[in-house]
Amino acid sequence: MSKRIGIIAVLAVLALCVASTGARADDIQTIGEYNGAAIHLDPGPYDPPTVIGTFNILAGDASATISGFFGNSVVGNSSGVQVFLGSILVAECVEFTACYTSGAAWADTLSAGQLASLGTGPVNVTAVQTSQFVVRLGVTTLDQVPAPEPGSMALLGVGILGLAAVKFAKR
Predict the structure, then answer these.
(1) In what order do the strands lie in the sheet with 121-129?
(2) 18 lies in the same domain as 29
(3) Are 82 and 128 within 8 A, CB to CB?
(4) What tens digit of pLDDT does each residue of 79-125 get?
(5) 10 pLDDT higher than 70
(6) Interval 29-53: pLDDT, tens
(7) What is the rounded distance in angstroms from the CA atom of residue 48 to the CA atom of residue 85?
(8) For the chain, which terminal residue's Cβ has fewer other Cβ atoms within 10 angstroms, N or C?
(9) Does one domain contain both 95 and 167?
(10) What does 76-135 look like in DSSP terms, one character per residue?
(11) Among 164, 170, 168, which Cα is nearest to 11's?
């Protein structure tokens, strides 16, 4: 019995070593606050689409969450604006809604498929002004969640085998 437990312990340590190599934590990136160029009154024209920063998309991630705030430390609200990550609309502040009058937090979760559609490498975050006054955005954050590594699956497999072995040994 103790020999089997010893073998299971060795397998578990080996699996932990395999799982720890190559695994990575979430990748979190930020873009600083943004203030539009000038005050624009209806009916426009407004600021042209403006790149406010760039995120580096990593290959093979399971999902990502992009978040930010309409308004910033200069003024706590924003004009109407659409925020895009590459070609994906991730946030929108509509004229005369809460984000327009008093600011608001926003967030969007992207699937693995959406991330794959962006490709890997640098992807622009773009603000498109849709109503009067000034676009103001707080810090924008992208949190990419890696897909499970093969080592994690190996660790899970060894754990299941260990439980089966202990159960078998009790018979």
Answers:
(1) 50-57, 121-129, 81-85, 88-93
(2) no
(3) yes
(4) 999 999 999 999 999 999 999 999 999 999 999 999 999 999 999 99
(5) no
(6) 999 999 988 888 888 788 889 999 9
(7) 16
(8) C
(9) no
(10) S---SEEEEETTEEEEEE-TTSHHHHH-EEEEEEEEHHHHHHH-SEEEEEEEEE-SSB--
(11) 164
Handedness of CA 91, 94, 97, 101 (dihedral sign): positive
Distances in Å between the alpha carbon of 63 and those of 74, 106, 108, 116?
A: 32, 17, 11, 10
Give the count of domains, the chain: 2
pLDDT at 1 over 70: no
91/171 same-domain check: no
Q: Is the pTM of this model over 0.70?
A: yes
The residue segments making up the domain with residue 73 are 25-148
CA distance 14 to 157: 12
111 shares its domain with 159: no
Same domain, yes or no: 52 and 89: yes
Same domain as 106, residue 32:
yes
Among candidates 50, 17, 20, which has minimal Cα distance to 35?
A: 50
**Are 30 and 58 found together in one domain?**
yes
Read off the CATH number of the domain in which 60 is found. 2.60.120
